[in-house]
Specification:
Strand content: 15-25%
Number of strands: 12
CATH topology of the largest domain: Rossmann fold
CATH superfamily of the largest domain: NAD(P)-binding Rossmann-like Domain
CATH architecture of the largest domain: 3-Layer(aba) Sandwich
Number of helices: 15
Structural class: alpha/beta
Largest sheet: 6 strands, mixed
Order of helices and strands: EHHEEHHHEHEHEHEHHHHEHEEEEHH
Radius of gyration: 21 Å
Distance between the termini: 37 Å
């Protein structure tokens, strides 16, 4: 089977995804039964490019000159471009082999335009894989219904903790288990910064290092003001707890330069300051919060250093289930997109919608 891919966004993650597909081509075909070719690219900088024969990507960065010269810089929107590609590849979409790969930057105010990109793809019969938290944080239930009606997959393993299989873990390996809540450290930039400030390094220096490494968001306020963690908390709560949150409804407190002294003082008395995202039930409501917390040194989250992340799920049958990411980055996020392609290849037709009673039992 060959997937035709439409890339929306071609930043660091998308470029690594392309190179990872090339590196893993033999394994993906031999062990998972598919190959992939890129037929469309949409970027904010270059515009739109489509080739029904596939786009030969001999290197991941930058785009090959023949591809750059072929971009169309018209005023039409990316949504229009998606509709156009789907129309041209209608037979591929009908066969379930057209996939939109959405990696645009998070918009913490509305989740747009990424959410509209997902809607357009699903409406045309394409699968969607994304590393963008916005669609899951703002419109998960609507998009999941659209995917079910279209018998297509809407997958987003890269939206939280890079390539660590949080959503797959629950979906595939924890049947009949209810997630009651969670808490975790889910933003690599702020955890690195807090660790660095404990050691006496200035706030701005630690942030600059994360920006230089390509780990911090393009707009660093998304990290330090807690928006990235709030979007991840909303995404996790919406998918795993049945919540209907957005980043704006998550209580949010980020980190500022004056937290450095608090981090140093806490470390001296056997405690650690971490930016913790948590969600759970408050009566009939599900609420979420992101804020710096002082943790006991024997707390699993307190032991996270540098860019390490972790999340602890509170479940009804398994008690506390924790997963730790000891290293993350572009390769891990790009791998999540590849793993979502593998899920599509393995699954064939996606599962039918759960019954209403089943859905209510998980809320």
């Amino acid at each position: 089977m060959t997937f035709d891919l439409v890339l929306v966004g071609f930043g660091n993650v998308a470029r690594r995804f392309v190179s990872l597909l090339r590196e893993q081509r033999t394994t993906l075909q031999r062990d998972h039964g598919f190959t992939a070719r890129i037929v469309g690219i949409a970027t904010r900088r270059h515009g739109h490019f489509f080739s029904p024969r596939g786009i030969e990507m001999t290197s991941s960065d930058p785009l090959p000159p023949n591809v750059v010269s072929g971009f169309s810089r018209t005023s039409r929107s990316t949504v229009d471009f998606i509709h156009d590609v789907i129309k041209r590849r209608a037979h591929i979409a009908r066969d379930g082999r057209l996939v939109l790969v959405e990696t645009t930057t998070l918009d913490a105010e509305s989740g747009q335009p990424a959410t509209d990109h997902v809607r357009a793809a699903l409406a045309g019969g394409a699968h969607v894989v994304t590393a963008n938290k916005g669609p899951v944080a703002f419109a998960y239930h609507d998009l999941a219904r659209r995917a079910e009606r279209a018998h297509r997959r809407f997958l987003f393993e890269g939206a939280v903790m890079d390539g660590i299989p949080l959503f797959n873990l629950v979906r595939e390996t924890m049947p009949a288990v209810t997630i009651a809540g969670f808490r975790g450290v889910v933003n690599s930039t702020t955890n690195f910064m807090l660790t660095a400030m404990e050691e006496g390094r200035p706030f701005e220096e630690a942030l600059a290092e994360m920006q230089a490494a390509g780990i911090a968001e393009a707009d660093p306020s998304l990290d330090v003001d807690g928006w990235d963690a709030a979007a991840k908390a909303a995404a996790l709560a919406n998918v795993l707890l049945g919540a209907r949150l957005t980043p704006r409804t998550v209580e949010r407190h980020g980190i500022t330069p004056d937290i450095a002294s608090r981090a140093v003082n806490a470390r001296q008395v056997g405690r650690r300051v971490k930016l913790v995202a948590r969600a759970g039930h408050e009566g009939a409501r599900i609420t979420a919060r992101v804020a710096p917390e002082e943790l006991r040194e024997d707390d699993l989250l307190a032991g996270l250093e540098g860019q390490q992340n972790a999340i602890i799920f509170y479940t009804d049958l398994l008690g506390e289930v924790a997963i730790v990411q000891r290293g993350g980055g572009l390769t891990q996020t790009a791998y999540a997109l590849v793993s979502d392609l593998v899920t599509i290849a393995r699954s064939g037709d996606p599962p039918r919608p759960r019954s209403r009673a089943s859905r209510q039992s998980r809320r």
